[in-house]
Every structure is written in structure tokens, then in C-alpha cells.
């Protein structure tokens, strides 16, 4: 069971990382953006680590206080939850 949870967290975090990268790319190119709701939803269902890493790797949304503090906080909560469930 732990293996399945870990694989799920890795996959959803990778997707969240890609979402941040795609949104940054679209922002630079002036294209239609990915809604913040989708980024938050992906983060909420387990991708907070990927979103947090993507936020800093792509320097995207780091000026938004809710992202700067919310995503790392959510990532820590997910880590603790995973640790408690494993």
C-alpha cells in the first residue's frame, strides 16, 4: 500500500511541476493561462511538493503570498500525512 501511495505522490507531484512550468511558459508568451484553481487542485490532491518545487524552479507565482506560504505548508502537511499513513 505504501508503494502505491508513494508512486501516486510522485506522479501527481510531477504533473503539478509540469503545470507550473506550462503556466510560466504561457505567461511569458502571452497565451491563455492555466487557472489557479487547477494548480491548487493538483496541489491539494497530493502534488504540493511538485508545485512548490516548480514555483521556485520556474520563478513563477513567488510574489503571490498565498502561493509562497500555502504551497510549502501544504507540502509539509502531505509529508506528515504520508508518514502517519505508512
TrEMBL record:
Keyword 4Fe-4S belongs to the record: no
Keyword Lyase carried by entry: no
Pfam families in alphabetical order: DUF1294
A molecular-function term among this protein's GO annotations: nucleic acid binding
Sequence intervals crossing the membrane: 6-27, 39-59, 65-83
Superkingdom of origin organism: Bacteria
InterPro entries attached to this UniProt entry: Cold_shock_CspA (IPR012156), DUF1294 (IPR010718)
Keywords: Membrane, Transmembrane, Transmembrane helix
Record-given protein name: Membrane component
